[in-house]
Amino acid sequence: MWKHVRNIILILIVLALAGIWYITRPDMAQLSLDAVTGASPQITAPREQIFPTIKVAEVDRWKAGEAPIAAPGLIVERFAEGLDHPRNLYTLPNGDILVAETNSPPRDLGGVEGFVMKWLMGKAGAGVPSANRITLLRDADGDGKAELKTPFLTGLNSPFGMVLIGEKLYVANTDGLVVFPYKTGDTKITAKGKELTKFNAKAPNNHWTRNLAASPDGKKIYIAVGSNSNIGEHGMETENGRAMVLEYDIAKDKKIPYAIGMRNPVGLDWDKKGRLWSVVNERDMLGSDMVPDYLALVEFGADYGWPQHYWGGFTDFRVSPPKPEKREYERRPDYALGAHTAPLGLAFGYNGKLGAGLSEGAFVARHGSWNRKPVSGYDVIFVPFAKGEPSGKPINVLTGFLDKDGNAQGRPTMLAMAKDGSLLVSDDVGNIIWRVRAKN
């Protein structure tokens, strides 16, 4: 009798282990990255996951003399190094560069979610405390390297967005917009900033970055604020003022939702027609092929679907309530950037000097996936525009962030066009700012 009981127990254990393997096995991509990239990506049936695919490139940072691979006709060089998790970049009118050395604020999620997030951040090279600092870089002699690297603003709270309007520098902490006085040539700001408006930074404060873009007339500031969750699973009451681009009217001291339904907008930039664009990170746990991250024109009053829908009306059946009545009013994104590529940086190339083929369109830094197999992103691409709209397939600009063994030597993060027309790329794993220029 006990022999039969033991056999039954062994069978149950085997079945349980098989079940655990089945629900936790990584989801392999069935489409190429190219198939889910462009103006008309393939949108396939989602493969809902109880546990996400986890495929993170191990960190093996750049050695002396190493660099990413630049496209033919381009050269990549180290503009500045030895930084502390550099993220956003901003070019001042005199050519000085501001870099936000920053990371997520402390978060104690607890439980399995907190453990997994902490493990992933450490594995991806992001498990470091925030320096909470903006550093100034200056290349006074024009040799393509910053000989001055000095703390410009300190004591901030996970700062990210920066924008100068007249003699006022606006900085977006994770929890609010702050303004400081600035005069051309300043290498340090010691004045206490004035907080203008608060942002929703309720726990767990996922997608903590707050990027900024000033309107061409300098009267308004646009603020990219990511969601507090994947698909609203923490309750929609924690999503007030999030998953959207906000518009802040400086004179009226008032902010309003400008465009909504964007899970995690990060990069912001204006095209030559004066239209605002953003790159957006889409939702997770629908498989390695879904949902494509995207580039979108940010239109006033537009709804891009999150959390109920994606890519112009496809329904995410995990979300409750479903709200099917929203679908016909939602705006489809303009250009897919591949599934789980994590696009962060965005910079139009109109004022760049990287060659004729890299001027009509936008540079995008794809930070790289953590939940796709095989990995995607880990590069800088150029999205060509035709008649003011993204068109065709992207062009590789910087690759080689992953070595031959698939380890991350660095991760491209944010972008800025330098005053001399070169492209600057922050690398928050390599702790380097790369400078990309045309060959002489």
Description:
The chain has 440 residues and is mainly beta. The protein has one domain: Neuraminidase. Helices cover 8% and strands 35% of the residues. The chain has two helices and 29 strands. The protein has helices at residues 2-24, 111-123; strands at 37-38, 69-70, 74-81, 86-91, 97-101, 133-138, 148-153, 162-165, 168-173, 176-181, 194-198, 210-214, 220-225, 244-249, 254-260, 264-270, 276-281, 292-297, 309-310, 314-315, 335-339, 343-348, 361-366, 379-386, 389-390, 395-399, 412-417, 423-427, 432-438. The strands form seven sheets. Strands 2, 22, 23, 24, 25 and 26 form a six-stranded antiparallel beta sheet that branches. A hairpin with a 4-residue loop joins strand 28 and strand 29 (432-438). The radius of gyration is 22 Å and the shape is globular. The model is unreliable at 10-23 (pLDDT under 50).
